[in-house]
Design brief:
- The structure is a homodimer of 575-residue chains.
- Chain A is an alpha/beta fold and 575 residues long.
- Chain A folds into three domains: 5-183, Thiamin diphosphate (ThDP)-binding fold, Pyr/PP domains (Rossmann fold); 195-337, TPP-binding domain (Rossmann fold, 3-Layer(aba) Sandwich), CATH 3.40.50.1220; 352-572, Thiamin diphosphate (ThDP)-binding fold, Pyr/PP domains (Rossmann fold, 3-Layer(aba) Sandwich), CATH 3.40.50.
- Helix content of chain A is 34%, strand content 17%.
- Chain A has 22 helices and 21 strands.
- In chain A, helix 14 links the parallel strand 16 (381-384) and strand 17.
- In chain A, helix 1 runs parallel beside helix 7 (146-160) and helix 8 packs across helix 12 (322-332).
- Chain A is globular, with a radius of gyration of 25 Å.
- The model of chain A has no long low-confidence stretch (mean pLDDT 96).
- The interface between A and B is large, with 81 and 81 residues.
Chain lengths: 575, 575
């Protein structure tokens, strides 16, 4: 009989492992120590993080690469430190499982006055707070229903690609539960055919596609969470229609394809407004992902493919999950009936960056982001933190099989450094499973401003000690430059304390010699940059490499340059 | 007419300044930039913090010294990062004002899809989440009621000594409001005399006091938030009764008084149980503040003085605010009627630490905490982070006019380093107002483990660049030693990454020469420690001084030593 049961903790962790969690983030705490005893036996790698916010950010990034991510925190103090990360996962659709170790049920039921509470016997506050930022919650109290509760919330996590929370009292960790259900991996509930709806939608879409003279395709970021990246790339390739991405969608379709023109910036607006059909996949139109709504396509000529619905003109046809419906559309599509046309834009890959001299200072106008593109390789994950980096990233020319992380809507500064930990570990774990294309190694490359770096800098230690293949370009522009562009360009509140950034590697314990020796550089001119990018230690080094790139306090990429001009005009009384 | 109004932002910040906020913590963000324009004109010092959690911790500590503290964050991303700190302020009664800059009302009302939201038009989530961790909330939407709303929540903050939240839409910041109310500082509503209740309570208490043969006094931590420190010290002095404190109460009564015997540890339990009356002031009986409830005095012989009630036996007489009732008790008390007696305990100040040799390694058993006491001076604030430091701090012998911060109930590791920033700034601001006793300078001295240090390490930068008089003793015991004592003493999840801690000062930008040059030391033996404590650079240095003290991974003070033994017994099958 023994073999028909397992512990509740193992049930949970094995479920996570089945779904693709190989590494799990978090910190120990008084109410999760016994739970953590089951991590390694369940074949998960424990990644002790420096704090819970960082663990949450790392799990978020891990999930965006690997399809699921998880962290473990402790009741109250631990879980509350992570809520900003969990909220960001909700906003931008990252499937994160937040496991919280809670006090034994006897304490909770007797309203005992214990630490990590408000000393008032009320234990439910943290549950209530996190209902607002998770798509499903399980508060485990009974071993009989616990496995099904775990499965329920994990399904919701996958279905919506949004975070869930599982609270486990310390005294339930080692309770026995049936292990039979573990024989089958959890699946997202399958959609049923909805013939009437599907026929209606297919006819309307195909009619519009066949009659379009000047159609375009717009790929936005929710194609990742809707799991339709392959289908969308198929449509982009087979139609050969001019294709753009949003910032969120960038890297989700191969932008070396001849008909993919990079990010839909306002300079393309007239062209897209003059089209007669827009196929818009995975739309996510926050102000920051749409150049203040300038690049939202006109509704009357657009077909929007949402995660579970299709919108044609003003009509929303629901109950058509995109990853179920798009294969049908592809199956019915007769490409011979489509109009092909050429548009006059140069492909971004054929546009040269501005001319500069080796002795010139590195600047935005000199094409920093554009120039960095030559450094990128297939398999790279490139991360561009909120700020000038995130806007600059729209200028990147990305090789195939790369992924770009950039700030989209949540825009919590500090996210990208722990996200680099998470993304790099996801690469590492995929390579270990032979599931990362055919690569045997791969880099994660972070671009981050000095201001953002300060919020979560300590997670660099975890990157170092996990021996991850990470390169960091720290843009030192002496403060919160993006805020200076928006308001207060000369105000003290946009200043930060000056650090000796490159000393961080030594502080956080990086080896100074040997295979994983860390290397650092400072860059002020284009000549400096060229030397760094061709340095053997950069190219062949295995330890963390960190480059401090100095830029002016007010050197910003579009559209921040225009926002800064407007601020100056306001100050000068020009409205 | 112009002079009868001011801006809403100035109204808020001037109110805070009137109440004692001289320095305000926080970070700029898109929805608070214009609000921050009013900080300096309102005579507040802006303390840009490295992240919002740290800002919250700093504001909490500032408030515990100065009677009120404040931080400013931005909508969503900023405020959620601070919630753990706000919750801690609630749990341990710190009067913190959390000001959040929110999007313009037009965005909120039109449900615009903007950044720092979930891109779904729902703006109320963060309000709802924080109702659970604040004692009052103001969501400003109308300039006519805004000043009264601000005043209402500030009163609640002071009345309960607990955090409040004020949300200000960006487009309300510069609206005009009447400034007349600013002529009078906000007061906590005064209590009315309740003659019947007061007479009953006074009679019962005085009867018990006059008849007691062997009474004792117990001072717990809520005497600070109840604002009865002076009254309690008066009673301790005038009764001359044997007095103990809890860990939370330590330093809140002058422990050099001959009848104050330090922390009520289980070794005094028999004595206190044998007493016939306990006067217990500001009780706060969480498990961690009461040696797992061992030191909760017996109810039938104890009079509990709560913030707004008195409990005598099982009867609670409410509506007797302690800071109103205790002066009455003192006024009626005839000390000549009290029994005096001597107890046989040595005063802690007369107990010598264990004998050690200069070449011996520094250990808990060798009396590290006790020995450190000779280093303390009047005016010091001493901070002992959760972990071995917090338990060890019970051994400190504190001079008069010192304050001890130690983990009590919330126990969020990472708190104490930013708290050191807040406490040191509060000292600085009090000295500037000539309100810090008669001191012209004062030190803040932090004891923190390596594990806790990693969570919030970057706030050291703010301490450095504000030129604060801070000394840090970092206990390097190679991981989460307190967790190892509880469970998993050999488990990997209690490990941390090894840093070169003393390099942090250089990394964070500390001067290497000049008046504020930082100094560092490493200590392994008692001889090393002695050298450091007598080093001129330590004694006369003005920059941050940091000492790395190495201890064994399992070297813990009581009662953690017993908890560790129990773990080992469990592993060996001894229950």
């Amino acid at each position: 009989m023994e073999t028909t049961t397992t512990t509740l903790a193992e049930y949970l962790f094995k479920r996570l492992h089945q779904l693709g969690v190989d590494s799990i983030f978090g910190l120990p705490g008084d109410y999760n120590l016994q739970l953590l005893d089951y991590v390694a036996p369940s074949r998960l790698h424990w990644i002790g993080s420096c704090n819970e916010l960082n663990a949450g950010y790392a799990a978020d990034a891990y999930s965006r690469v690997k399809g699921i991510g998880a962290l473990v925190t402790t009741f109250g103090v631990g879980e509350l430190s992570a809520v900003n990360a969990i909220a960001g996962a909700y906003a931008e659709r990252a499937p994160v499982v937040h496991v919280v170790g809670t006090p034994v049920r006897e304490s909770q039921e007797s309203r005992a006055l214990i630490h990590h509470t408000f000393n008032d016997g009320e234990y439910k506050r943290f549950d209530r707070m996190q209902e607002h930022i998770t798509v499903a919650q399980a508060i485990l109290t009974d071993h009989r229903s616990a496995p099904a509760e775990i499965d329920r919330v994990l399904q919701q996590c996958l279905l919506h690609s949004r975070p869930v929370r599982i609270a486990i009292p310390l005294d339930m960790v080692s309770l026995r539960v049936p292990k039979m259900a573990l024989e089958h991996k959890i699946c997202v509930p399958l959609p049923c055919r909805q013939p009437q709806l599907e026929d209606k939608a297919l006819k309307a879409i195909l009619d519009r596609m066949y009659s379009a003279k000047k159609p375009v395709i717009l790929v936005d970021g929710e194609v990742r969470s809707a799991k339709i990246m392959e289908e969308v790339e198929h449509i982009v390739k087979s139609t050969e229609w001019p294709t753009f991405t949003s910032g969120f969608g960038k890297s989700l379709v191969d932008e070396t394809l001849p008909n993919v023109y990079g990010v839909f910036t306002p300079r393309y607006k007239d062209f897209i407004d003059s089209s007669d059909l827009v196929l818009c996949f995975g739309p996510h139109f926050s102000n920051t992902n749409s150049y203040l709504y300038q690049t939202v396509p006109q509704q009357h000529k657009t077909i929007f493919f949402h995660p579970t619905s299709v919108q044609i003109d003003s009509e929303i046809i629901r109950d058509l999950p995109a990853n179920h419906f798009l294969p049908q559309l592809i199956g019915h599509l007769e490409v011979a009936k489509l109009n092909r046309y050429t548009c006059n834009f140069d492909h971004p890959s054929s546009v040269a960056p501005p001319d500069v001299q080796a002795s010139d200072l590195v600047t935005q106008a000199g094409g920093f982001w554009h120039r960095m593109s030559s450094f990128f390789q297939e398999g790279d994950i490139i991360l561009a933190e909120t700020g000038t980096a995130s806007y600059g990233a729209n200028e990147f020319r990305l090789p195939p099989k790369t992924r770009l992380f950039k700030a989209v809507t949540w825009l919590s500064i500090g996210y990208m450094l722990p996200a680099t930990l998470g993304a790099s570990l996801a690469q590492h774990d995929l390579i270990a499973r032979s599931e990362y294309h055919d690569f045997l190694e791969a880099r994660s490359i972070l671009f981050i401003g000095d201001g953002s770096f300060q919020l979560t800098a300590q997670e660099l230690a975890t990157i170092i000690h996990r021996k991850l293949n990470v390169i960091i370009f720290l843009i030192n522009n002496d403060g919160y430059t993006i805020e200076r562009a928006i308001h207060g360009r000369n105000q003290g509140y946009n200043n930060i304390t000056p650090w000796r950034y490159l000393k961080g590697l030594e502080f956080f314990g990086a080896p100074t010699e040997g295979e994983y020796a860390a290397h650092t550089w400072q860059v002020r001119t284009w000549g400096d940059l060229e030397k760094v990018l061709t340095d053997e230690r950069m190219i062949k080094g295995k330890g963390v490499r960190m480059v401090e790139v100095f830029m002016d306090r007010l050197d910003v990429p579009p559209p921040l340059d225009r926002i800064l001009e407007m601020q100056i005009e306001r100050e000068n009384g020009v409205q």
